[in-house]
Amino acid sequence: MPHPRSFIAFGVLAGAIGGLLAFVFAWIFAEPLIQQAIDYESGRHEAQEALDRAAGVSTGDHEHEIFSRAVQGNLGAGVGIVLFGVAMGALVAVVYVVLLGRVGQLGPRSLALLVAGGGFLGVFLVPFLKYPANPPAIGHEETITVRGTLYLVMVATSIVLLIVAVAVGRRLQARLGTWNASLAGGAVFVVLIGIVMAVLPSAGDLAANVAIYGHHATETPLPLEDAEGTIVFPGFPADVLAGFRLYSLLAQVILWGAIGLVFGVLADRLLRRSAERSPSSVHA
C-alpha cells in the first residue's frame, strides 16, 4: 500500500488540472454573461439614481473597486477556480484512501470516479438545487452573510446525509443485496435532503428582504418602477440567468469529471507500481 501522501499529491495535481479546465470553459462561456450582468447592474443603478434625484434624495458617492474588472474576470477567477479544484482534489484523495479496499470489487479507476461523483453530488449539485449560482447584480448586500451561512449549512448537510445514505446502504447490503441496498440508501438521502430543503428558507424569504423589498420568491431584480408605477428599467434578463446557471453547472461537471478521471489513472499507476515492488501484496 503506497503512502497516503502520494495519493494526496496526485489528488492535488488532478484538482489543479480540473480547475484549469473548468476555468477555461467558464472564461469562454460564462464570462460574457457575467459582463452582461454587470452592464445590467450599472444601468439599473443609473436608473435608480435618476429616480432618487427626481425625488430629491441624495445619491451619495460612488465606491471604486480595488481590482479592475479585467483582473477579477481573468486572474482572480482563474486562481480561485484552480485553488478550489486543488482543495477538492485533495479531499477526493483522502476519501479514496479511506475507501480503498473497502468497497467490494471496484477497481482503482472506478473507485476514483465514484468518489469524485459523490463529491460533485454532495459539495455542488445538491446545494445548487436549493441555492443556485447567480451572476453579479443578483443578491442584496443586506443578506450576504445570511446567504453565505445558509449555503455552507446546505453543503455540510448534504455531505453528512450522503455519508449517512452510504452507511445505510452498506448496513442493508447483506440483507437486501447490493442493488436494493443502494436504492434504499438513495431513498434515505432523497427523503432527508428533501426535508432539509423544505425547512431552509429561500433567498426571497429572508427577513431583511421581506422587510425592505416585500415578499418575493428570489432576489432576482424585478422591473424598476417610478412613483407612478411606470417601468423605467426592465427586470434581470431571464436568458442571462439561465445561461449562467447552466454554464456554472457544466463547469463543475468538467472539474469533478477531470478529477475523477485524472486521479483514477494516477492512483491506478501508483497501486500497480507498489504491487510490482511488493509481489506478495494484494492489489486493491
UniProtKB/TrEMBL annotation:
The keyword Lipid metabolism does not apply. The keyword Transmembrane helix applies. This is Cobalt transporter subunit (CbtA). It holds the Pfam family CbtA. It comes from Petropleomorpha daqingensis. The lineage of its organism: Bacteria, Bacillati, Actinomycetota, Actinomycetes, Geodermatophilales. Keywords: Membrane, Transmembrane, Transmembrane helix. The chain crosses the membrane at residues 7-30, 75-99, 111-129, 149-169, 181-200, 246-267.
